[in-house]
Amino acid sequence: MEEGARSCLLQSRSSLEQDIRASYLMDHMISDGVLTGDEEDRIRKQAVALLELLLRKDNQAYISFYNALVRESYGDLASLLHNSLPLVSPEAEKSFSDGGTRYVQAVLSEGGVPQRPVVFVSRPALMNRVREKLYRLQKEPGWVTVFGMAGSGKSVLAAEAVRDHALITECFPGGVHWLSIGQLDRSDLLVRIQSLCFRLEQQSQEKDPSSSLHRPPGSLEEAKERLRFLMLRRYPRSLLILDDIWDSSVLKAFDIQCRVLLTTRDRSLADCVSGPKSEVAVESGLEEGQALEILALYVNRKPQRLPEQARSIVRECKGSPLVVSLIGALLREFPDRWAYYLHTLQQKKFKRIRKSSSYDYDALDQAMAASIQVLSEEHRELYIDLTVLEKDVKVPAKVLSVLWDLEPEEVEDVLQDFVNKSLLFRDCHHRPYLYYLHDLQLDFLAEMNRSGLESLHTKVVRQYQQRYSKGPPTSGDEECLYWFRFLTYHMAKANLTQELYSLMFSLDWVRTKAQIMGPAHLINDYLEYSTILDKENSEVRGHFQEFLSLNGHQLEQRPFPDVVQLALSQPDSSEVYRQALLQAQERATRGGLYLDWVNKSSLKSLSRLVVQPHQGSIYSACFSHDGTKIASCGSSKTLRVFKSTSGEKLLEIQAHDDEVLCCAFSLDDHLLATCSSDRKVKVWNVERGTLMRMFEDEHEEQVNHCQFTNTRRRLLLATCSNDKFMNTKLWNINKPSSQNTMFGHLEPVNHCCFSPDDAYLSTSSSDGTLKLWEVSSANEWKSIDVADMFPEQREQTEVMVKCSTWSAGGRTIICAARNAVFVSVEEPALPCTHVVAIDMTSYVSSLQLWDIETSKKMADCSGHLSWVHGVQFSPDGSLLLSCSDDQTVRVWETNKVHTSSAVCLKRDSDVLFNNGDITVVAADNRNRLQVLEVPSGTSLATLQGHTRTVLHCQFTPEGHTLITSSEDTTIRVWRWRTGECVVLEGHKEQVRCFSLLTTTPSSETHLLSWSFDGTIKVWDMSSGERLQDLVCHQGAVLACDVSPDGQLFATTSADKTAKVWSSASWECVRLLNGHQDCVRSCRFSWDGRRLATGDDNGEIRLWNVKDGTLLKICSRDNKDAMDSLHGGWVTDLHFSPDNTVLLSTGGYIKWWNVEKGEALQTFYPTGANLKRIHVSPDFSTFVTIDNIGILYILKKVE
């Protein structure tokens, strides 16, 4: 044992003998191999005997004893020994602290932890400090930060710290998982987390074959939740190592309550995450003895036998492991150049002008310059070409084969030479190997070749164009990914603007890159290079960016959608549409099927920006007072701030322990308040994302709403909650408790709002009242009983006042209850027009703009697919913000949304095709039938009679008669031009649908209807007489279809079966079993030989009508992990006249090859949940309506 270590043990002996339990420590020391079983017996658990034996042992025993103290929480005693920890030679280290077991090697290999470098020197003091911090994570999640200068060996230290059997078995039995980060944008980070999740799921599946692989998460929020699930459920008590973190926003993506070790150059990064934190500084680099040992290993000598220049070289290297290794590699090649390399370092010939930095790069410059100089001239030129690489990017040899125009084997020989000289690093965890430069090496190369950078990037582009003149690579390997990711970067750096325009304004490039890499990189390209692209054509750049923004979620799907078909839904004026139409027309000549949405120009009121900031419902969103930012919160428990122009994320905070119900900016936009179901109110610093104040003791139930005052006179925060009595409070954020409490409401208060001058506060309550309070005294000023305005409903159900708002002048207050809005005028209204935005909570949530002076609706804003929770105008009134359960925040331009056409159509409709004219009938939201001429929208008739929702409507073939069925259990047969009708009554429950049945031999046309009561009824349409009454299924009858010859009809049911019936005998002739869910639709082929059935799982089955055998199953292999087979229930089916193509509707519309059961085309509507589609006789025009009332007229592209 070294003399210093022995002396320290002797000095601390009395303290150690008094406090330690020898038996606790000996287990660790036996595991490390420094104590034998016989020695354990001799010691007999006595501390005195243990220390006596320890003084006769070597350095390894001292370090093992120190580590045992750390593990058994004798931190104060371990600190007595810390400063005298001895150095351990590489030979000894190899046998002692490399983990010592195959188990450790297997765990680290599975987790992707880098192998120990070939030339390695132990740093026991640092390593033990890291391990001491890691032992603190044994019982709870937390963060250990290892920080220090570039090239100080942080990554090697992190890897070495976990190379310990006891540490892994005691603290991290779930494994150790390594992830290299570096400088990443959002899309790159998503790719890294996707890769980690895939690796974890794959390992989990190997251990448990019953677990399944999921599709890659499509967004960063989804990826974060997936990783959270994996780390907490499948890999509990595991360690995640994040290597080389640069950005706090990246680190937040891993704030998932797990155990994390991170390496970084910025010690403050961990301030942005939650949980216990500790840190280890790696500030001084290698000590002199360690650096000398590295040099000695390179030149195969003992440290004592190195020449005198060695110590001077170490001092010039300033302790950097990277620089020492570079010099060592040079000396291995030229062992007699000690004086030369010392002189090169001392001369500092390659000084650079750079911004103030905490790191000294000069020594590294000299080492790298000297390394490059010893290369052959040919290799030196090749190495300079590496200047074009991005930092933290690893490239395969095949990319450099293209760049250098060499065979792959030649390239690998060159790269091996670079690696041997420490000029390049190789990632051996990938096959084939990936190569990369340290960022300090890239800094040096960029500075050295500053004047030639453009020509170097031009060389990359030209070499790529020469190699891939016939089209880009599509293999999906590392080389392919590199070109798709960085080709645009090289073109921009080379100033090859025409090439960049041609590439990025090409639908072919968009399709191929989106398929290989997803849309995130593409959208980022249009944003990053917008300045260059706008010089050519800003409008076209906008077309492509808008197309990707609106269809990005579709481009994430697998199987990959047809980009040409998606692009055909773009406006006719779009360059994207123009290119798509040309390609569709060309492909149609070769048998391709494409649909043009011919009436899309009539689609109005679409939002300007759609952002999906959270996973889950969004309960609140608000503009900052300068209008540049939007904050949102919801069921994900997070608060997010993003730009109101682009949706770019500025801040994301894990704000509460439960759903965040509201967020609000202060007047100066420096603060954000949030309130939550966890009963807490928090105030955040917007710029730093830090918590400024938390109020957690006064509200006893969930806090529903919060708002800051509107003027600079004083800063107060109002909150309201579900508390029984003390449910409205005012807070001074500089004080720990509330300033005032308003008493008066006896039920939960849902909303509170300051008047524009902050004199009053309005509160809206579930007790049916709206109250106005004086802010200065907290006294009630006025109470308005809104429930009295619903006298017919008050006794039946409670009337809840949802929210309220003030007019700009503060003279008018508006509140909402049930489906009505009430305006209370306290003083004569201002002469200007006031506009109010209302979210109407109906089945399809709609957003409406009203003029409160004239009580007229100004506009409908359709787009949300679920309940709308909140709306807000921007400060200047030009924009409108809405948030919804559909996980989106939408921004609308107030002056550009439009009033709806005459009616808001529901999805239950029919279409009459007559010599090119199209007539549509559909029910409106008042259960009236509207007959319209399209595309003009002219109303031809309005029919009233049904008392409840109309479920189905259909024209007879000649077009003069219209038949409808309803939830009111009746069927009506209309002469729609005159309004006359016959009512058919007999069903006991709602009549879902009906069909026309032509019987033989009389050729009379009867009506076949079916209902939730499980029956089929046959009617005489003219008299209304019921002819037959059949009990068909045990469950509700959901669909029915009549064969073309009228001899058969088919029924489907919620009992998961389909049946074929004879219309002559009214008996069941075929029972079709096999569906796993409700069978919702059916259709005979025109030749009567096939029957198609569709179920609620999205599966379509094709049956042989003659014998009932199953012919094909469509969609079986195309199910998305997060969706049904068809994006929803299969609600309608149609065969083409030649019976070769089958059309189906569900969440979207699909066309199928009947013989093969393969999809030919898919059309994605703006909304969802299509119910019916109507087909022209020639199968070239298709008409349907989605769940937000948008009408689609689709025509085949010829």
UniProtKB/TrEMBL annotation:
Pfam families reported for this sequence: APAF1_C, CARD, NB-ARC, WD40, WD40_WDHD1_1st, WHD_APAF1
Keywords: Apoptosis, ATP-binding, Cytoplasm, Nucleotide-binding, Repeat, WD repeat
Biological-process GO terms, alphabetical: apoptotic signaling pathway; intein-mediated protein splicing; regulation of apoptotic process
Primary localisation category: cytoplasm
Ranges of the WD repeats in the UniProt entry: 653-694, 742-783, 861-902, 943-984, 984-1029, 1030-1071, 1072-1113
One GO cellular component, as annotated: apoptosome
Domain CARD residue range list: 1-84
InterPro entries to which the protein is assigned, alphabetical: Apaf-1, APAF1_C, Apaf_helical, CARD, DEATH-like_dom_sf, Intein_N, NB-ARC, P-loop_NTPase
Subcellular location: Cytoplasm
GO molecular function, one term: ATP binding
PANTHER family: APOPTOTIC PROTEASE-ACTIVATING FACTOR 1
Protein name per UniProt: Apoptotic protease-activating factor 1
Organism: Oncorhynchus kisutch (Coho salmon)
Lineage, broadest ranks: Eukaryota, Metazoa, Chordata, Craniata, Vertebrata
